[in-house]
Amino acid sequence: MPTVWVLGAGQLGAMLKQAAYPLALRVEPVEPESEQLPAIKDGDIITVEREQWPDTAVTRHMSQQSGFMNADIFGKIADRFHQKTMLDTLGINTAPWRSVEVDTQAKSLHAALGPDVLLKRREGGYDGKGQFWLYQDKGLDVPSDWLGTGIAEKKIPFNEELSLVGARDKDGNKVFYPLTLNLHRNGILMASVAPLARVDHLQGKAESMLGKIMDAADYIGVMAMECFRVGEELIVNELAPRVHNSGHWTQAGACVSQFEMHLRAVSGLPIKAPEVRGQSVMINVIGVERETNWLKIPSTQCYWYGKDVRPGRKLGHININHPKKSAVQTALNELRNLLPENYGDVFDWVKEELSSL
User: Fold this and answer.
1) How many other C-beta atoms are found inside a 10 Å radius of the C-beta of residue 357?
2) Cβ neighbours for 322, distance < 8 A, ≥ 6 positions apart
3) What domains can be seen in the chain, in order of their start residue?
4) Model pTM greater than 0.70?
């Protein structure tokens, strides 16, 4: 079997490496700033755990390899201008937007997009970073450091945030996980719930949208599509050509996790429809010291990323899965007592969603 090299050595790379063992694959995450070039051989595969990376000797070396999967798509996805242009070309719903040029003024953006306009950096920015709200009633103009570096989006009054994780192989076969309901705070994903029966009727529409994107890009591997639900419509917010935080629940809740599915697809192994196992909830651990008592809670899997603790930093996640919703709720009640008070509204949100199933 070939070696699968992963550009990026964070938690996603580590979880890909863990998922590789049952497949008899060798996965080697590579730090982009490493001083040593990876010894890539003919037939080896290069994939990524993030869509942006610095220009270093390692990234140049890896991106020039013939086994670098989806090489043509990363620039389009990483740059929000190209991502939005691609969605428009494919006729897929996304928030109305404009490019922020060097001479763009707030007046023109408000005329085109309304009183509340969100500026986003063309590249970089995640977990709420790289964004700036331009409110007409505050009389703000476009900050000088945003000119020529961003896009502007119309504010979408959405009902909720959903994501879809799918995979495509080299022959164009596609499989999808159930739509996942997500809760964000300050742009950071706090919790996910899947599956959710009340959005089942949107599954086909979401699959058609993501499938069209993956086919147009001739994409191989796992891709995530984050959407706003507005009534019965889905509006694409962001695309991620990689495994994604909102798909972490699949580690406990599906017969094939998103990490294994990605490795199957890029290495040419068969992909299959992921059988869902019971009810799943994922809680992100943000800026919180590790608590070993999390490990005692039934129906849970705990993942700790080994990072230094800092406010607002993703440090781990906890998957809860069980065929009975009552068992999931019991686990949530125990976990609630072991996380800080600021998680109270997160658990309230999850409890409300589970009660509506």
Assistant:
1) 12
2) 278, 279, 299, 328, 331
3) 3-68 (3.40.50.20), 96-154 (3.30.1490.20), 160-355 (3.30.470.20)
4) yes
